[in-house]
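Marked as duplicate of an earlier ticket. Keeping the data here for the record.
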Amino acid sequence: MHSSDNIVKQSHTFFSVKKLIMLCSFLPIIANAAVANPIIADQDFAQCKVNLVERAEKSGFSSYITETVIGELSPIKRVIALDKKQPEFTQTFEQYIKARVSDYHVRVGKKKLIKNKKLFDTLEEKYGVPRQYLVSFWGLETVFGKHKGKMSVLNSLATLACDERRSEFFTLELLNLFTLIETRQVSVEQLQGSWAGAMGHMQFMPTAFLKYAIDGDNDGKVDIWKSEVDALTTAANYLNKIDWQAKERWGREVKLPENFAFEKVVFDQYYPLNYFKELGVKKTNNQSLSSYDIQAELYLPSGHKGPAFLLYPNFNVIMTWNLSKSYALSVGLLANKLVGAKGLEFLQQEQTKVTPYSVVQMKNLQSQLNALGFETGEPDGIWGPKSRDAIRSFQLQHQLIADGYPNKEVFSTITLVLSEAKFIKQSSNQES
């Protein structure tokens, strides 16, 4: 489970632990610190460590944690840079999918399904999570254990905890990692992982490890680094506890009719499946959607010129693992291919006719939309729900196809609108 803006971590306790830090427990440890960008200033990190010691002492940790472990923490300069360049934000949907739902992932994933059949039989029966999803997560997180990460988890989390952008989230993860160390569930020597502090075959964050970890091979300890059984069992337990619906799929690729009524669909909102059936949405083979009683959300990762998906409740469960729709679609599409599906129909037939936008362009567009009264929140360059809604509202007002996507028509139209507004204002000033 990656840790990023686009990540929500859920947890379930598997032992009694009073040191599990709740989200509302404390204030951020460096709320007023001036943090250099992208490198944390030495004096700020030193002060951050002082604050960490204070919080750890209040939480009842031993002197080993407050003096030795915290005392040896040091920042990793590269971590902040990596945090700002996550592929969910810097790659097009096509680039993202092609890199993750690859022939290699499918070929090796199918071998893993065969090799671990007995384990997956047990996990499906006990937790209700189909095996192809567990293998899909495994492949996407670490390429089936090949790339578990070699960075110091302690120093990565400390670096992010001492960066003001998401200080509190990573501070909580670090404190929960201290609990894992103090209760001897992990050793400091084991703690290697990703730049964001995720660990093991399935890339669990410390909080998730604390609350979901299962000793799947019954050897008396949980080892998510070396034991595939422990890692996969923990993943099944995690998905089960966050309400995976055993008899439902994640969603499906669909075809929209020509002249689809975009004005009748608000994005990031669920509707009964029958609603989309009435709007003429069909399966990719042109067959009608079923009348199954399930809620669905329409998602267009590249706008109306790209592929279209209906997303079901299990998609939100995948998003709990990693709050990125591109990631969640990769999980679903790879899982489909592992059990014989063709994959993404749209990309097999044609390429998305959309010019990619940059983070800088998106931030500028968000600022322009805000100026015109279409609220996107603080400009961050991320095409999230607020931006989709603001773009859709702008498109509807200016008779554009309301797909909520930042395409060239949106960029050119908003430039024209702002230019006209500026001209009118200048003319008014001259007249007065």
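See parent ticket for discussion. Residues 251-349 form one domain.
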